Structure prediction request, 361 residues.
Amino acid sequence: MAVRKIHNSWWVDFRSNGIRYRKRSPENSRTGALAYESLLRHKLSKGDSINESINKGNEHPNFKEFSRQWFETYVKSNNKASEIRCKEMTLRVHLIPFFGKTRIDKISNFQIEKYKASKIKTKKLSNKSINNQLTILAKCLRTAEEWLDLNKIPTIKKLKVPPQKYDFLTIEESNLLLNFSKGVWYDLFLLALKTGLRKGELLALTWEDINWKNAQITVRQSIHRNIITSTKSNKIRHIYMTNDVYNCLYKKRRESGFIFTDENGKHFSRWRINDTLAQVCKKAGLRRITCHVLRHTFASHLAMAGATVQSIQQLLGHSDIKTTMRYAHLNQSSLQKTIKLLDCNTDNKYFGQYMVNKKLT
Prediction:
């Protein structure tokens, strides 16, 4: 029996009449994989097609054929709804039109560089957007390497991306925004500013997620286009409430249900949230911003108050600390304290004389 576990999934991998079959087991367990292998071998012995073979003999499929198999078998099984839509669009609009007719094992470094050059030439996509497409291509090729037992796949070099710019409100601007907000919009904007939750996470909050005893919010899910899904990092995190957030929620507490809904009890659309926020900003005399700026504001205020990058990362739910590092330069007090550590091991008499001279002048 040839079954094995690859990246937390059980697979069958065997040969029959010179053809290799490598498939993910529908039931993700060793017992399920063994049963699945027996079923496949039984079908093949009767001459039935198992309708999943993608590598017959030495003939490899082209990128279009393999990417569709990969999408149906791997992407739909392992990705969230939002990621599935993104990969489907990227394959259909970008990758398949360029690589579609090329055999999967014949895609070269040169061809990938030509793809990058063609996307840059259009001047319609940022380097970051092109890199996102390359990430999907790389994952598809790595899967082909596993499934088809390819000898080698091309190395994909990402484009350089300039540091990402972001906007945030000052404390005075944050207070001004809240002063011009009313009702449920005040509540929603307050939580965004004081918890750093993403828009989808705010809309997915339920009253069961609130621990009144510990003054804690549990972030366990998100909403994307009215579909409940996991958080972006696929992890549950806990946020302690400030006094104003606690009091705000406690006044309108319920036993169950979603916290933020419209007058009909339905989720706000992302367009309505940003439109309302824009209207409030206009009334308050502030620049137009999106809801994500409130998340940046939360992180920026923490950094300026001296919070560590690691703490901010945990509160924001970033899977990679590199994403959080954009706020590090705001923590000047931490940088100053770090430099002061050098004073412990140096002779300060010259610096002391400098300070005396400075006072005399």
User: Anything to note?
Assistant: Residues 255 and 350 are 66 Å apart (CA to CA).
